């Protein structure tokens, strides 16, 4: 079956590109693929994987091959082919040929629902904003836009120098890394500081080493528990491979100390075995974790913890070789940053890496929206909804007139019904609102006051990632957003855009929970908004939303 698929694949690619592409292009095309070509190949790889092509065949799609044509016409043809073909079906069976060649084209990527299409379009609008000029034009000096653009570009364009940047950053911030310097950690090293900073890192599946701190519920106490303790899946060979990569990229002349790997493993495996009181400065520890947030930390702060377990961890730290402690913490910090800086995701508790699904551009767009969600939302309003200018959304507001034209064209509809519907449509109003707190003076500046993000697109992405996480922690900002009444961010207010279509002949009522005036029986679309989960309406597609809501005015949902 595999050989049949390979033959069919080559035959169809040759057919789609006139059958002579290999001979015509292989000698004169550059072996260095441009960014637009790489994006094509990433899309092809995703489609091939989703279409059931064996891993050994789709894995090499993004690598240069002198016998492949990389001109746009060839890549377009390949994209059409990959979109249509279902590789799990036998192409040599007459009964299943159409399923092989056509099923995915009919039922696959083009068959998306309204919201899916909306999200695809709005992502494109957001990318347009992230690629717009901030030096001239309407977005010149736009608040935080250059920082968002830098973060997006750094995430998308990786470089081998990232490993060296990470090593230098960790050494300058936390002191010697003993396995490479063969020296004791210097006065800069403090395990509690490193653990506190690790607790500020937001990555899926990441558990900080030694101790883990969290807030279990809204307005709740702080919870302290033992951190990562399961290391059985990481072998001596895994550690050796990792340290060898760092050693090579940084450019050390002397070999690293292999003997310290075993010492580090011994420390990791005895973290929770003994119990004892420690003299750690808890007030300083929690203050470092919640720095630049408004979470109140004092000697009266309530902290819940499994006492014996935590004391056992602290005792292990007290009696262990400090080189082993430092190596373990440096290893976790560096591995987390290096893995963030590649196209891999991983289970950071087992150090197992898998290829990240999706196109890199989309992955980085999502990460950028998570951090710069509110500022990008405000920028979108400026670009697409300026009522004093002919922006796209101003044109969308004419949708009501288009509905009237459609209704008046129905020959089967009674004139009295047409008159009623025309009056109903003309009575509708569209409201696109923002949370109350965003309307306050310098609201965004206050919200992002702790954010430290660079505008230098040539700077290091992992260092920028570290700075963003250190200065602006999204999870605890969300915690504040649900508990701090002084900042006026009740959960039901954190919505960037709320679209409503109402009928003016209905009685008005004020919904205090939303701080909005609405009409009874009017139909609305409300999408929860927050830095962690930006809704599709926060970034665009509002014309589609308006049309959708207007349509509800003629069904049972909107009366």
UniProtKB/TrEMBL annotation:
<dbReference type="InterPro" id="IPR008753">
    <property type="entry name" value="Peptidase_M13_N"/>
</dbReference>
<feature type="signal peptide">
    <location>
        <begin position="1"/>
        <end position="22"/>
    </location>
</feature>
<comment type="similarity">
    <text>Belongs to the peptidase M13 family.</text>
</comment>
<dbReference type="GO" id="GO:0004222">
    <property type="term" value="F:metalloendopeptidase activity"/>
</dbReference>
<protein>
    <submittedName>
        <fullName>Neprilysin-2</fullName>
    </submittedName>
</protein>
<dbReference type="InterPro" id="IPR042089">
    <property type="entry name" value="Peptidase_M13_dom_2"/>
</dbReference>
<dbReference type="Pfam" id="PF05649">
    <property type="entry name" value="Peptidase_M13_N"/>
</dbReference>
<dbReference type="InterPro" id="IPR024079">
    <property type="entry name" value="MetalloPept_cat_dom_sf"/>
</dbReference>
<dbReference type="GO" id="GO:0016485">
    <property type="term" value="P:protein processing"/>
</dbReference>
<dbReference type="InterPro" id="IPR000718">
    <property type="entry name" value="Peptidase_M13"/>
</dbReference>
<keyword id="KW-0732">Signal</keyword>
<feature type="domain" description="Peptidase M13 N-terminal">
    <location>
        <begin position="269"/>
        <end position="433"/>
    </location>
</feature>
<dbReference type="GO" id="GO:0005886">
    <property type="term" value="C:plasma membrane"/>
</dbReference>
